[in-house]
Every structure is written in structure tokens, then in C-alpha cells.
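Hi Q.,

Before the meeting this afternoon, I wanted you to have the adenosine-5'-triphosphate prediction in hand. No need to reply - just skim if you have a minute. The sequence and ligand are here:
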Amino acid sequence: MADLTLTRIRKTFDATVAVDSISLDAPQGCFLALLGPSGCGKTTILRLIAGFETATAGRIVHGDTIWSDADAAIHLPAERRRVGVVFQSYALWPHLTVAGNVGYPLRVAKMNRPDRDAAVKQALETVGLTGFGERQPAELSGGQRQRVALARCLVMEPEIVVLDEPLANLDAHLRVAMMDVFGAFHRETGATMIYVTHDQAEAMALADRIAVMFDGRFAQIDSPERIYSRPADETVARFIGEGAVLEVPVLRRNGNAAVADLFGQEIPLPVSGTGAGDVATVCVRPDRCRIAPDGAIEARVLRTTYRGSHWLVDLAPVAAAGAVLHLACGDRPPGAGDTVRVAVESVTPVGAA
Ligand code: ATP
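Predicted structure with the ligand bound:
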């Protein structure tokens, strides 16, 4: 059991910088999500960890074993890293049965037949596929195929499992069910899980730490709660949640907090280091805003969108041309063009300690 450390890892493909000098500590047993938009370098990091790519610069160390060191030209091959890999596409052998697929890595490792059969049986039981051993992959649903891929990972008893958008091909119901399977797998194996996704809800539900990535770099590595409640910068704040990111003038200090002017409403900012005359960046989340007859903010309704559990209302505050607030409304909302009064319960400070 060992920790995984990436130090100043850089990976270029010709002129493209896919990963730009990132560093990361993944303690043994953590569940880390790499979260970011398409093309930001998430998959490349997984491939570097698994050993499918060679870093242009930097080091990857697992416990006291150097897996990769660009300066020393060290690159431990993938098969010697014992990293389990789960792909979005499942990557099952179509001509092998479920048991054949799950037992394949053990066959390659020359494990004897009885031990192999026992390990396969146990792994299929863990992922809830007892009795499916003789089926072909083509006879399984997407979720069942993903479980086979997970069972194949499990038989190798990996210390690290990397998962690349494993739920992207599944429908909403199956995604929730498979999240439970991944959570149980993590608890039962104690493996380090490194999970790539661009879906923040998935990352928040599964991970104990999230690394938010843009353009080959980490913008913030933190707990899901901190990522949501204390985004490190505007880009993270805009990417996480549906909040409006705004600059507001600070009116005065009030003990350890400051008070800012949000379109005519005085709002406390739980940050130190700002005072009268400063401008603070804040994120206003839709669930912190409500329509209230005595609300201090006057705003015009731009449009409403039905979201199932609530309506999302886009509002233009009268006091600030061009600014937009979003509000979550449980009841039927006012119509586009109506003028309403809005109260904001709290704001999320952006980039402040
Ligand atoms: P997605 O969420 O769309 O899968 P990602 O965040 O996983 O994206 P990567 O696949 O890591 O992103 O790609 C990062 C950048 O590196 C992209 O600009 C991509 O085009 C480029 N890239 C990745 N692999 C290669 C390759 N083998 N050759 C050339 N460029 C590559």
C-alpha cells in the first residue's frame, strides 16, 4: 500500500501541451476525481499514471518506486505498475465469455485454473454478476458490461484503479446504480481510485478530493465541499454550480467579515483582508436567491427554464445593466418581462482565503 505522487508532470504532443507541469499527491485509498471540460488533459493524466504514455518532463512515484522520471529516462512499463484501468468503452474481448474476460489478466499472469476460477467467481459476486460467467459480452447491458470491466480490474487486486468517464455511455438510472457499485468497490478494496469526469455531480457524489482542471493545469485540488463553497478562482466558480460570478463593491468592514453592495442589497462577505473601496468577486448560487416582496434587489425576468425539481429563472438586476442573476424557484415562476423583487441569502466568496 503506497501513495502516488506526480511532480511537475508535463506532456506535449508536437505543439500541443496536453498536461502543463502539474503536481499531485494521491494518498493510498483516496478517491480522487479529475474534473474539467473536454480537452483539458484529464485522460492524458490517467494514461501517464497507467504507463500508456511517457511524460515529457517530471516524475511519477508510487511509494518508493519511481514509475517515471523524464530526466533519468525511467519509464516502468504499464504491466509492471499494476494499475487497473476502466474505460468508457468497457474494452471487453467480444469472443470471450464474461468469465473469460474477467480471468484474462490472471491467465496472462499464468495463475493455475482452480485459483483463477475461484478469483473470477469472487470478483463476479462482488460486482453483482453471479451466474453471468458463461454469457458473451454481446448478451449484456451497458451497465453489466461496465461491471465485467470492473470485475476484471478487481481480480488483479490493484492498488490503483483509474477510470476514464466510465458512466458516460449509460443512462441516468444506470449511472446512479453504477456510482453505488464504484463506491462499494472502493470501500471493499481500499484501492486508490482516480476517476476522470466532466460531470461535476458525479465527481461530488463519489470523490473525497476533486482536482479541477483547465488547459492542462490544476486550478484547485480540494474536498468537494471546499470546491463548492470556496472556489479558488472565477474559472472554478463558473464551472461548478450554476452561479453568477460577479464583482461587487465592498462598503465597510464588520468585525472579521466585510459588507458588500449587491445590486442595492447589503450582503456579508465571510472574508478577511478586504475593506471599504475594494472590489470583491463573489458567486451567487441560484438556491441562495428567492423572490420576496421586501427583497432589496429589483430585477426583470429574462427567461425561465423548467428543471424538473425547480424552475431556473434568469434575472437582469435593474441597478446593473448587463448583469444576470439566476434563481431557483419551486413554484411556477413569474413570466419573462415581469419585474420582481429578489433577496439573496448569502454569497460564495471567490478566490479569498
Ligand atoms: P475529453 O474529456 O474530451 O476526453 P480530456 O480532458 O480527457 O478530454 P485529453 O484527451 O487528455 O483531454 O487531451 C488533452 C489534449 O491533448 C487535447 O488537446 C488533445 O487533442 C491532445 N491529445 C491527446 N492525446 C493526443 C495524441 N495522442 N496526439 C495528439 N494530441 C493529443
